[in-house]
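User: Please predict the structure of the protein below. I'd like the answer in structure-token form so I can feed it into my own downstream comparison script.

Assistant: Understood. Taking the following sequence of 92 residues as input:
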Amino acid sequence: MHNSLRTKHYPRARPDLTFRPVEGHFTLTDRAGAQTERLSLVAALVWTYCDGRHDRDAIAEAVARELPDAGDDVQAPVTALLAQFVRQGMVS
């Protein structure tokens, strides 16, 4: 649920993570190579907007625009992915 009284959060990806396509999927790897996270197409797209300039709503709009087959309600999956990224310490 969006609360308009709260300050908007503009997620920013950790700078030590490398995002890249690998054999038909996408990965995030830390600089030390100790951790690799495999991302779905939707998660990869969400990740590309974690640049500190887009809030959750803007990211959801971008996903809906770029992946029209994802359906009309992309807000919930985008919110869940962002929460997962935060929990895993991948974005601030």
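That's the full token string. The two ends are 20 Å apart (CA to CA).
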